[in-house]
Amino acid sequence: MQIKLFQAFWGMEGTYSELMKRAAREGYAGIEAPLPPLNLEREFKEQLAAHRLSYIAQIVTSGDHATSFAAQAERAAAFDPVLIVSHSARDFMPFWEQLLFFEGALKVERSIGITVGHETHRSRAMFTPWNTSALLRELPDLSITADFSHWCCVTETMLEEFEEDLRLAIERTVHIHARLGHPEGPQVAHPAAPENKDVLQAFKCWWDAVLAERERSGAAVTTVTPEFGPVGYMPSLPFTRQPVADLREVNNWMAGWIRETYPSS
Length: 265
Hints:
The protein is α/β, with parallel strands linked by helices. The chain has helices at about 15-25, 40-50, 65-75, 95-110, 130-140, 150-155, 165-170, 195-215, 245-260; strands at about 1-10, 30-35, 55-60, 85, 115-120, 145, 175-180, 220-225. Strand 4 (about 85), helix 4 and strand 5 (about 115-120) form a beta-alpha-beta unit.
């Protein structure tokens, strides 16, 4: 099975031309980013083609979440993405309402013919291991984007108590967000720091399991996006809000670690 690395645009500055040229130069198979503004759609598509980059589309539902999801997913389909990553529904919605949302989302997914990985993200329906596993048990065709950093933060654990929930999530993962979280936050300052050795090992075990499950199920490719975030996620110095590490270097370090750890990438 091949691992394909995608470069996240979150927190990165520059034009689409500059960002995509850099992603291609740094050896990424594609980029992961929100849908472009309407007036930049043509430029976005042209730059993807010019640099021979694949695209993972990010969408975020709001308001009438079902309608919001359908509109964004259908627009995303016009960019021929390899995958859609969705921040879906909300954590405070009653479970029955979440189920209705995801039932509708699956119908949209089937109609556009593009896989959707609903992200395990704080404030969203999949904000905890137990709520996610409940949704996955009810809806066998539902897939996730695994960003387990959020679950570490929400549960204030390294998920030791959630093995069964984690096992099901791993089985249904179609895309990995490679960011390290910890019990007190969704992002360590730098994954290479020695104080984060145990956290990195824990995430490696989860990612190993995802990749093994993907291979077992016959997947030819698994996509991975190193997705550390800017200040807000990135710790910063008081008063100046200067980041304690360089975001681009952190994400590229994570990409390099993935290439070394999983040589097919």
